[in-house]
Design a protein that fits this description.
By secondary structure, the chain is α+β, with helices and mostly antiparallel strands. The protein is built from eight helices and 19 strands. The strands form eight sheets. It has a four-stranded mixed β-sheet. The chain has a three-stranded mixed β-sheet with strand order 3-11-10. A hairpin with a 5-residue loop joins β14 (297-302) and β15. The longest helix is centred in the N-terminal third of the chain and has 17 residues, at 41-57.
Length: 366
């Protein structure tokens, strides 16, 4: 066939740069998108032609080869050429067509920047990029407040659908035969029309693309089975209640050829009886005796970091006095909070004369 002039199809000059080509294609693709012209065969063909032109002109290597072919020609006598051996890798039809509800791109394989720009214009993801969000699994993990503060690892066990260990996800009894579906030829989809006609899930194989003669005894042919799995999750320092941790590829298994979903873990912090947190700061109370407060003492106080710190209580310390331990609170994003230690003096039930003098000093109003 005669050469197509992709520059004329897009309406750009031969010196046009990539940005101009992209901008022009964006506007034309919106104008001729088949969803705006339902049932209009010409609009569909125009859209296909525009996308084909963009897939070549937006790729420097393919554009260079295309320009050389236009300049020198490959046909008899040097006049004209065809694209029989030209690689349109970024834009080729796979034999699948649109589903109910309008035009889709499931029948095309996109490479280079074409898939990106179609996604950007129409909010459409190519089939090879989809999969993770369809099979997201959620779970909660209980995290001690000390680990949430200083960071560490926690384990939890989850009963989840996983690849069947007996058939390895194939769905067939080990050693038995599996045939490609004769109706959809292994695609999982059965077309009821032409190039962009309506299509749906193949009823013969129910979208699997294969015929299983002897289903797996464990999973019944589904390829998945419930299994208990233990996960070790890394908790970053300063993790707060309700934060999400993503475990990629650990969600629900997807259909063959597509990635498994992600596991989204919600952190639930087990509140410590000793500590109270406000932002990155930690608060605690420590009991001491009347004599310790009056005469002074030293004590070792537990911190959220998992270590004990020596605190000096000077003579005559009053009940409710607060001591600040700089940098011993929660740490996040490189910043550490403080720890505030409040002493609570135990008042004796039947004080003697000496203790009554101490009480006047320790519990007197400030």
């Amino acid at each position: 066939m005669n050469a197509k002039n992709y520059y004329n199809i897009l309406g750009v000059g031969e010196k046009a740069d990539t940005n101009e080509i992209k901008k022009t294609y964006r506007n034309l693709a919106k104008q001729y998108h088949p969803d705006k012209h339902p049932g209009d065969r010409k609009a569909e063909e125009k859209f296909k032609e525009l996308s084909e032109a963009y897939s070549v002109l937006s790729d420097p290597a393919k554009r260079q080869k295309y320009d050389q072919m236009r300049k020198y020609g490959t046909g008899p006598g040097g006049g004209g050429f065809d694209f029989g051996n030209f690689d349109f890798g970024p834009f080729r039809h796979t034999g699948r067509t649109a589903g109910p509800g309008g035009f889709t791109f499931e029948g095309f394989e996109f490479g280079g920047g074409l898939g990106d720009i179609l996604s950007e214009i129409f909010g459409i993801k190519s089939e090879r990029r989809a999969g993770r969000t369809d099979n997201i699994l959620t779970a909660e993990v209980q995290v001690p407040s000390e680990i949430a503060t200083r960071g560490g690892k926690v384990q939890f066990t989850l009963l989840k659908e996983d690849v069947c260990p007996s058939c390895n996800g194939g769905g067939a009894r080990p050693g038995s035969r599996i045939d490609a579906c004769p109706v959809c030829r292994g695609t999982g989809r059965a077309s009821a029309g032409g190039f962009l006609g309506p299509a749906g899930i193949c009823t013969q194989c129910r979208g699997k693309g294969k015929i299983i003669h002897n289903p797996c005894d464990r999973c019944g042919g589904s390829g998945v089975a419930n299994r208990r799995k233990t996960y070790a999750v890394r908790i970053p320092p300063g993790t707060k209640e309700g934060e999400l941790i993503r475990l990629r590829g650990q969600g629900k298994p997807a259909s063959e050829g597509r990635p498994a979903g992600d596991l989204m873990v919600t952190v639930r912090i087990q509140q410590d009886r000793f500590f109270r947190f406000s932002g990155d700061d930690a608060y605690c109370e420590v009991p001491i005796s009347l004599k310790q407060a009056y005469r002074g003492t030293q004590m070792r106080v537990r911190t959220p970091k998992g270590v004990k710190v020596k605190v000096t209580v000077p003579p005559g310390t009053r009940d409710g006095t607060q001591f600040r331990l700089a940098g011993m609170g929660a740490r996040k994003n490189g910043r550490a909070g403080d720890q505030f230690v409040t002493v609570r003096v135990k008042r004796p039930d039947n004080p003697d004369a000496e203790e009554r003098d101490m009480i006047d000093t320790v519990f007197k109003s400030k």
